[in-house]
């Protein structure tokens, strides 16, 4: 049986390519070319004013012996762990409360506002509020304890404070996503649990969390990827200090590229970060498939 091609489809093809050409051009200029260019530069020694010089795996060998890189990676992992654990817990509890109280759509919309605020504005506002001398938070702490807390000026407080800002910014968006997942759980599931004598805590652990696993996996992965890419909040508040205590990997990449103009080595670290995020995405797919049995 031979297939016949519609004449109208052939005439529409040029128009279709014309309509998608702006998107294809944007993809090629702003994504494909920078990606391929960065991949090439990661194998070169490139300092802007000179032509890139091919050095093969030289940057990667330097990377494995770079103590600052591994320190920045550990700081980033610490920041990501705090952001994910605190963020998911706060978002999950908030979503459950919203679901039980049947809060209006207006309130849920207002919860997303911090997510819509830029990271620079978030960092500026909270740096003023947490200022050790004039910040309203430290004014209250000083009245209670007699001493202010150096949220951004202490090595022990810097990363947890930055993680707290990240949680505050993303909590509303994540809570709304989880709330949407809660809406899909039939009420009969909870009625059956009450008939069996299950408490609220038992139903939360054995019914709500397993049925929300696909949504939680998505929220966790989005939070992890967003946390690994943190830069603006750190740049505005601590600039990686004190004494590199909050120098996340993105800060180190920025310093190498635009502070020391070593774009080749910065591209190598960016490639390493990309591989790490790709591994997280692969883990997401595995976890999502593992959770299908809970929702089928």
From TrEMBL:
<feature type="transmembrane region" description="Helical">
    <location>
        <begin position="69"/>
        <end position="98"/>
    </location>
</feature>
<dbReference type="InterPro" id="IPR000515">
    <property type="entry name" value="MetI-like"/>
</dbReference>
<dbReference type="InterPro" id="IPR051393">
    <property type="entry name" value="ABC_transporter_permease"/>
</dbReference>
<dbReference type="Pfam" id="PF00528">
    <property type="entry name" value="BPD_transp_1"/>
</dbReference>
<keyword id="KW-1133">Transmembrane helix</keyword>
<keyword id="KW-0813">Transport</keyword>
<feature type="transmembrane region" description="Helical">
    <location>
        <begin position="15"/>
        <end position="33"/>
    </location>
</feature>
<feature type="transmembrane region" description="Helical">
    <location>
        <begin position="211"/>
        <end position="231"/>
    </location>
</feature>
<feature type="transmembrane region" description="Helical">
    <location>
        <begin position="263"/>
        <end position="283"/>
    </location>
</feature>
<keyword id="KW-1003">Cell membrane</keyword>
<feature type="transmembrane region" description="Helical">
    <location>
        <begin position="149"/>
        <end position="168"/>
    </location>
</feature>
<feature type="domain" description="ABC transmembrane type-1">
    <location>
        <begin position="69"/>
        <end position="284"/>
    </location>
</feature>
<keyword id="KW-0812">Transmembrane</keyword>
<comment type="similarity">
    <text>Belongs to the binding-protein-dependent transport system permease family.</text>
</comment>
<feature type="transmembrane region" description="Helical">
    <location>
        <begin position="110"/>
        <end position="129"/>
    </location>
</feature>
<dbReference type="InterPro" id="IPR035906">
    <property type="entry name" value="MetI-like_sf"/>
</dbReference>
<keyword id="KW-0472">Membrane</keyword>
<protein>
    <submittedName>
        <fullName>Sugar ABC transporter permease</fullName>
    </submittedName>
</protein>
């Amino acid at each position: 049986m031979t297939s016949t091609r519609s004449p109208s489809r052939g005439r529409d093809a040029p128009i279709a390519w014309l309509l998608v050409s702006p998107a294809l051009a944007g993809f090629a200029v702003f994504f494909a070319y920078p990606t391929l260019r960065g991949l090439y530069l990661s194998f070169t020694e490139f300092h802007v004013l000179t032509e890139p010089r091919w050095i093969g795996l030289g940057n990667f060998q330097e990377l494995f012996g770079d103590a600052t890189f591994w320190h920045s990676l550990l700081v980033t992992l610490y920041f990501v762990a705090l952001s994910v654990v605190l963020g998911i817990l706060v978002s999950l509890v908030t979503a459950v409360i919203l679901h039980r109280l049947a809060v209006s759509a207006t309130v849920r919309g207002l919860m997303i506002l911090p997510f819509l605020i830029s990271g620079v504005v978030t960092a500026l506002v909270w740096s003023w509020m947490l200022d050790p001398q004039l910040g309203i938070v430290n004014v209250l702490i000083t009245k209670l304890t007699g001493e202010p807390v150096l949220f951004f000026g202490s090595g022990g407080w810097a990363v947890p404070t930055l993680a707290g800002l990240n949680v505050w910014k993303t909590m509303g968006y994540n809570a709304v996503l989880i709330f949407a997942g809660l809406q899909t759980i039939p009420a009969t599931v909870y009625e059956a649990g009450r008939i069996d004598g299950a408490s609220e805590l038992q139903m939360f652990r054995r019914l709500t969390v397993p049925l929300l696993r696909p949504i939680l996996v998505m929220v966790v992965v989005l939070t992890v990827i967003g946390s690994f890419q943190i830069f603006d909040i750190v740049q505005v508040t601590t600039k990686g200090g004190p004494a590199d205590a909050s120098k996340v990997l993105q800060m180190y990449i920025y310093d190498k590229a635009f502070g020391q103009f070593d774009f080749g080595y910065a591209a190598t670290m960016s490639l390493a970060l990309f591989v790490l995020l790709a591994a997280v995405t692969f883990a997401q797919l595995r976890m999502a498939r593992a959770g299908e049995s809970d929702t089928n």
